[in-house]
Amino acid sequence: MRNFNLSADLTPLYRSAIGFDRLAQLAEHAAANNGNAGYPPYNIELLSENRYRITMAVAGFAMNELDIVSEGEKLLVKGIKGQNKAEDKRQYLHQGIAERGFERSFQLADHVQVIGAELENGLLNIDLIREIPEALKARKIEIKGSHLIE
């Protein structure tokens, strides 16, 4: 019987993944290790072959309370809520809407870049594109036959 080391580095296996396949796995792994696991909820969509969208439910957050930073292959989304708690004199009978800050990070796949973001109806949409440099794209190599000289 063989023993398998589950903590082994599986990075070489991920290299065959295309674009966001790897990102989805890494995003779920990051969420599991995050103190705010599950908050805020998000979707990852495939819009076309090389275009993706992360949609996060950020109801109650204004644009000035959200921060998106893309650095290298890491995307960090922060929500900073409750800056003016002292000024808020509301008295809640029931408070079911979360007013806590969050920090959600995503590991982007190779050559994936953020191209824009918009906040609409409590949903933060972050658009991404995968642009593979020309030098790394597959190219067809012409096969030439040898000409026999008689």
From TrEMBL:
Xref: CDD domains: ACD_IbpA-B_like
Keywords attached to this entry: Stress response
Pfam families: HSP20
Record has Nucleotide-binding as a keyword: no
Gene3D superfamilies: 2.60.40.790
Record-linked PROSITE patterns: SHSP
Top-level taxon in the UniProt lineage: Bacteria
Annotated ranges, domain SHSP: 33-146
Keyword Metal-binding: no
SUPFAM superfamilies per the UniProt record, alphabetical: HSP20-like chaperones
Similarity comment: family membership: Belongs to the small heat shock protein (HSP20) family.
Protein name: Heat shock protein Hsp20
